[in-house]
Design a protein that fits this description.
Length: 384
């Protein structure tokens, strides 16, 4: 485990030198503070979507979706196969040392109460998971920026929803692998497929949107507001291995984990309990993990209980890239885990790769060294 100091100004200078090696460093003599992370956006001037295209391409009703969207659907028989393009046309520059490990949280500048809400849109082989319209609608209605880590298969199976989220300037899209495998047990070849297929699927969808009349009429400037590729990545189950981290870093994708997990996947909590965990654990710089693929229990109902409270306490919501851009330091780790090192080894056990010594069982009956935080919390703690 390592904590790397993330000194923003030296990092900016370093990357400006990389970008302008011929000695043409623009504004290097200026003392003005850097406007953004030069790695994730060379100018610091990034956008996540286009309001004009969002409004031109979908009606209010289409954007609102339906409670039916939340349900899983069975995958048609024999349904599998790669995306129509398996290699993305675009690539990103490799990451610097400070961002090459698994990132769990950041240290914001003194006094900046920023945090990132993230929602996973996981889809494994053999299922077509859902879309939690309640989550997205609440975020939209209340202007809450958030990051959706989207599976490649999920994109392919929900093209309109994927495009709406990609186009909405409030939301950032991250890569959550093609089919939600435990990458710790995959070969490097398979790991690359899981990552690149998803980048490629995003590109294909973005190109299809760009070809629509509604997007054409909005103009090139608006179309280019939608990022060409996902900018960040999240490991399924939070399980990684060094080769996967290296490939991601070389591909310019920071591996984003979380520092606040309330486990909305279990059905043994209420919306109030879920909100209470997050309110109790919230700190400036945390990354919160939740689900929007229909597998989160009471996730949407928890949002009105926690977002106004966090705002009242002075918190500002930002996307993951927004968080990295404003960070003073990034806390990152050479291992991946849920709450503490080793606590996600049970996923290796479940997938038959690693036998664990007998120990406490979790509620699914699997060995688990970590207790679920969902049941805890008396709600009496002050927000920090
Ligand atoms: Zn997931």
């Amino acid at each position: 485990m390592h904590i790397f100091k993330f000194a923003l100004i030296p990092a900016l200078i370093f990357f400006l030198f990389l970008l302008f090696p011929a000695g043409s460093l623009p504004g290097a003599e200026s003392a003005s503070p850097p406007s953004g992370n030069p790695l994730l956006s060379p100018t610091g001037d990034f956008t996540f979507g286009s309001e004009a295209i969002l409004r031109a391409c979908w009606t209010e009703e289409e954007l609102r979706g339906s409670p039916e969207d939340k349900k899983d659907r069975p995958a048609p028989p024999g349904y599998s196969g790669p995306p129509e393009r398996t290699e993305p046309k675009n690539r990103r520059a490799p990451l610097p040392p400070e961002l090459r490990n698994s990132i769990r949280s950041v240290q914001p500048p003194e006094g900046e109460k920023i945090l990132a809400l993230t929602f996973d849109l996981c889809e494994s082989s053999g299922e077509i998971s859902g879309y939690d319209a309640g989550v997205v609608n609440y975020l939209r209605e209340n202007g809450v920026p958030a990051t959706f880590f989207m599976g490649g298969r999920w994109m392919r199976d929900h093209p309109e929803k994927a495009l709406q989220l990609m186009t909405d300037p409030l939301f950032e899209i991250g890569n959550h692998t093609w089919s939600h495998k435990n990458l710790r047990k995959r070969t490097l070849g398979k790991i690359k497929e899981e990552i690149l297929w998803t980048q490629a699927e995003y590109e294909v969808l973005r190109e299809k949107l760009a070809a629509r009349t509604c997007a054409q009429n909005a103009g090139q400037g608006e179309r280019e507001k939608i990022p060409a590729l996902p900018l960040t990545f999240r490991f399924p189950f939070g399980t990684c291995k060094p080769g996967a981290l290296k490939f991601l870093a070389d591909s310019g994708l920071p591996a984003i984990q979380w520092s606040l997990v309330a486990d909305d996947r279990g059905d043994d909590h209420t919306a109030a309990q879920l909100a209470r965990i997050i309110l109790r654990e919230a700190r400036p710089g945390v990354i919160v993990v939740l689900h929007a693929n229909g597998h989160g229990y009471h996730t949407a109902e928890a949002l009105p209980r926690l977002i106004p409270e966090l705002r009242k306490a002075g918190y500002e919501f930002v996307t993951v890239t927004g968080l990295l851009t404003r960070a003073r330091e990034v806390s990152n780790f050479s291992d991946c885990f849920e709450l503490k090192p080793g606590d996600n080894y049970r996923y290796d056990f479940i997938t038959g790769v690693r036998a664990l010594p007998p120990q406490r069982k979790d509620r699914m009956g699997f060995p688990s060294p970590v207790s679920s935080p969902v049941k805890g919390g008396d709600g009496g703690e002050k927000l920090r």
